[in-house]
Amino acid sequence: MSTDFQQARIALGARLRELRTGTGLDGKGIAERLGWQRSKVSRLENGKQTPSRTDLAEWAHAVGRPDLAAELAGRLTGMETLETQHRSWRRQLAGGHRARQELAIAETSATQMIRGVEVSRIPGLFQTAEYARYTFESNAEFRQIAKDVEDAVRARIRRQQALYEPGKRFRFLIWEGALYVRTCPREVHAAQLDRLVSLIGLDTVELGIVPLGAQLRRTPSHGYWIYDRRLVIVETINTEMWLDDEDSIRLYERAWEWLAESAVYGHQAHRVIGRARASLDVT
After folding, report:
1. Cα distance between residue 116 and residue 230, in whole Å
2. Is 88 helix (H, G, I), strand (E, B) or coil?
3. Is residue 85 a contact partner of residue 242, using CB atoms and an 8 Å limit?
4. Which residues of the chain have pLDDT under 70?
5. What are residue 145's phi and psi, to 5 degrees?
6. Domains of the chain, with CATH numbers?
7. pLDDT at 241
8. pTM, whole model, 2 decimals?
């Protein structure tokens, strides 16, 4: 659950309490009037439970303010929007990684152009099966979730079929440091870097590497993916944010464009990747 969602729920609870005290009712009194357990009143007022629309309408009537039912329902709608935007990894990955990978396949299928930034890893769309396998294994251990690694790897590789679909565009920026972040054996990481090189020149892919020594207009703070001009997905340690408002999309587009100014492409990108590959000392 996101902090913003919880704060909104606490604020709604405070509003319910304000309406109750305005009528002179205590917790026991309004519980009796509503036919509820007193504990439910306490949970709602303290932001420990999300009310239903029916709960809010009944509360408004119980305090003699049925005209405020629409206001309370509007607050609930705002909370639901926040909950949709901020999706906890604990909830999304409760049964393993496969379901989230299937969702990624659907979003990729519905998108003509994906622009992405990665600052600490290789984008999933470009990962080899072995690199993906180590990624899922590590994440499952970290989050203490079910290990459906092979199903997740197969789904991730299936998603990569979109790279070869005419009309699709994939424009990605990778911070050079990410080429050196090794979460798998040297030979697996080396093969992953070879895979990146093989994508340079693919007519659906534009791969830019942002060199460590490049002058930047703004530092890359975290990774994110922009799906057409309709959605931005941002990952944090505990949540995944799905942002579809115009202001957020514009902001992330500007961040992407500013970083793209410092990226190198083609043979220059090949050379930067090759430097990271050589550091592994793997034949």
Report:
1. 14
2. strand
3. yes
4. 1-5, 78, 80-87
5. -120, 175
6. 3-87 (1.10.260.40), 93-278 (3.30.870)
7. 85
8. 0.73
